[in-house]
Amino acid sequence: MSDERANGHDRPPTGAGSPAPRRSVDVGTLVEQAREGRPRAVARLISLVEGASPQLREVMAALAPLTGGAYVVGLTGSPGVGKSTSTSALVSAYRKAGRRVGVLAVDPSSPFSGGALLGDRVRMSEHASDPGVYIRSMATRGHLGGLAWAAPQAIRVLDAAGCDVILVETVGVGQSEVEIAAQADTSVVLLAPGMGDGIQAAKAGILEIGDVYVVNKADRDGADATARELNHMLGLGESRGPGDWRPPIVKTVAARGEGIDEVVDALDKHRAWMEEHSVLAARRRTRAAREIETIAVTALRARIGSLSGDQHLSALAARVTDGTADPYTAADELIAGLTGEQQ
Ligand SMILES: Nc1nc2c(ncn2[C@@H]2O[C@H](COP(=O)(O)OP(=O)(O)O)[C@@H](O)[C@H]2O)c(=O)[nH]1
Ligand SMILES: [Mg+2]
Predict the structure, then answer these.
(1) What contacts 176, CB < 8 A, 6 or more positions away?
(2) Mean pLDDT of all residues belonging to the chain
(3) Ligand nearest to the CA of 217
(4) Is residue 50 part of a domain?
(5) Do 269 and 139 reside in the same domain of the chain?
(6) CB 3.0–4.6 Å: which of 3, 94, 148, 183 could bond 99 by disulfide?
(7) What's the pLDDT at 319?
(8) Which of residues 278, 303, 329 is at a domain's end?
(9) What number does the ligand 1 atom closest to the CA of 253 have?
C-alpha cells in the first residue's frame, strides 16, 4: 500500500531531514490558547504531532512545563468488546465529578482517522458539545517509531490543555495493546463473554498488562464464566506478596452505564495504591525513558538512512568487503562518526 506515503505520514518525527512544514504557525500563541482549553488550538497541536511537524521540537519545549497534571488511563481489548462505549460512559462519570477529560483514540493500523473510528465518533457524540471534554482520534501508521512515539506527544498536548483525566483507546489488537499500556498510568483490559477471550487474552499477553480488568456485556450469557476463567488465569501467574496490587475484575454493561462507577472506583484505588508505593513516579520515569529512547533511535535511524551515498560509509563498506574490517567495528565507527558530528 503506497497511499500512506502520499498521505505524508512517514516523515521522521524529530524534524531532522523533514520536508518544509505545510504552513508555519506561531507555537507560542497556539500553546497559550491550548492552555486556555481552546479546542481548535488543541486540535492544531495534535495535528502537528500526527503530521510529525518539524515545529514539534518547539511545541514540546513549550508544553513541557505545563504537563504532569493529567492521569492517563489506557483502554485495550479486542475490537467490538466495548472500549468506545465504556470510554463514553467513563467520560460521563468523570464529568459528573467535575473533571476535565481528554479522549484519545489511537489507530496504529491505519493512516486515516476514518473507518473504525467513525462508529466511535457516534458513540462519543453525546459529549461533542461539552467544553470540558476533548475528543480526538489519531492515526500513527507510517510514523517511524509509530505508537510509541506519537501517543505520548498527543497525551502531552491534552495534559497541557488542562485535562485531569486522559482516556486512551487503542483501535486494533496485538502489539499495539502492549504499547498503549506502556503509555498509561493505569491500564484497563476489556473482555466480553463468548469471544473465546480467555484464550485470546493469554495469547496477546494482556494478562500481564492489566491493572484493572473489565468483563463488559455482562447482560449476555457467559459473563460470569468469562470472569471466572479470567480470575483463574490471573491467579495462575500469581507471585504476589502482601501489599502488591491485585488487579480487580469488574463486570459492566457499558451500553447501559452499569458498573461504570465500580470501574472508576477501581481506577481511583489503583492510582492511590501506585502513589502510596511510589509506583506512579517510577512508571512515568520508565515511560519517559522509553520515549527518549524512541526519539533518539528514530533520529539516529533517519541520519543513518540518509547516509546511503555517504563517503565514510562507502569506505567502511570497502574495508568490510576486502576483509580489513569486520562489520561490527565498521558499525561502531559509523556510530562514533554520527555522534561526533553533533558536537
Ligand atoms: N449487549 C451489549 N452490547 C454492548 C455493550 N457495550 C457495548 N456494546 C455494543 O458492542 C458494540 C461494540 O462496541 P464498541 O464500544 O464500539 O467496541 P470497541 O470496538 O471495543 O470500541 C456496539 O454495538 C455497542 O453498542 C454491553 O454492555 N452490552
Ligand atoms: Mg472503539
Answers:
(1) 76, 106, 108, 109, 147, 170
(2) 81
(3) 1
(4) no
(5) yes
(6) 94
(7) 96
(8) 278
(9) 27
- Statement: residue 173 has pLDDT above 80: no
Is the beta carbon of 217 within 6 A of some atom in ligand 1? Answer: yes
CA of 294 to the centre of ligand 1 (A): 34
Best mutation site among 75, 78, 81, 85 for ligand 1 pocket (most ligand atoms within 8 Å of CB) = 85
Range of the structural domain that residue 331 is part of: 291-342
CATH number of the domain within which 92 lies: 3.40.50.300
Instruction: Give the global pTM.
Output: 0.83
**244 shares a domain with 144:** yes
- The residue whose CA has the least distance to atom 23 of ligand 1 is 80
Pick the closest to residue 217 from 251, 253, 189, 242 (CA basis).
Answer: 253
pLDDT of 215 strictly over 60: yes
Residue nearest to atom 2 of ligand 1 (CA): 217
Distances (CA, A) of 89 to 84, 102, 189, 257: 9, 13, 16, 6
In a domain, 272, yes or no: yes
Q: What 3-state class would DSSP assign to 195?
A: coil
pLDDT at 334 over 60: yes
Does 116 contact ligand 1 (Cβ within 6 A)?
A: no
Better pLDDT: 8 or 212: 212
Q: Do the beta carbons of residue 295 and residue 149 sit within 8 Å?
A: yes
Cβ(119) – ligand 1 distance below 6 Å: yes
Q: Whose CA is nearest to atom 7 of ligand 1?
A: 82
Q: Determine, yes or no, domain membership for 25.
A: no
Residues facing 214 on adjacent strands: 190, 250
216 pLDDT higher than 90: yes
- With bands split at pLDDT 50, 70 and 90, how would you rate the model's confidence at 237? low
Within 10 angstroms of residue 324's Cβ, the number of other Cβ atoms is 10
* Domain total of the chain: 2
Task: Look at residue 168 and tell me if it is in a domain.
Answer: yes
